[in-house]
Design a protein that fits this description.
2,3-Dihydroxybiphenyl 1,2-Dioxygenase, domain 1; four-stranded mixed sheet; about 130 residues; about 20% helix; alpha/beta; single chain
Length: about 130
């Protein structure tokens, strides 16, 4: 359904360091960059997620919005959370099973440096 999504950020250098770390834990890489934005995905020039410098006008949506990144394993969810906290993110839910979402829903929740609510999740057996 979705082709890509982008966040407006206040400090592109800070945010790219954060997203380089957290998304690499999930197997995503920087697929393009310029002076105003950085794109992440799996293949060259094919971004699934981008951050765009918007300066002081950038605002994260409030309660009710979050972005969940697909993780290849529970270990990757754990690594995502560790990387987020080490690179300027704020814990918003330690890695673990979320029985309310299903018997195999393993996720971690953080706030990025601009306050965006993001998650890494794997929802399958084993």
């Amino acid at each position: 359904m979705l082709h890509h999504l982008s966040f407006g950020v206040t400090d592109l250098a800070r945010s790219s360091r954060f997203y380089d770390a957290v998304l690499s834990a999930l197997g995503y890489v920087q697929v393009w960059a310029d002076d105003t934005a950085v794109g992440y995905g799996l293949c060259d020039r094919e971004d699934l997620f981008a951050i765009k410098r918007r300066g002081a006008g950038a605002r994260a949506p409030g309660e009710g919005f979050h972005l969940a990144f697909s993780a290849p394993s529970r270990d990757a969810v754990d690594a995502f959370h560790r990387a987020a906290v080490l690179h300027g993110g704020t814990d918003n839910g330690q890695p673990g099973l979320r029985a309310d979402y299903g018997p195999h829903y393993y996720a971690a929740f953080v706030l990025d440096p601009d306050g965006y609510r993001i998650e890494a999740v794997i929802n399958r057996c084993a």
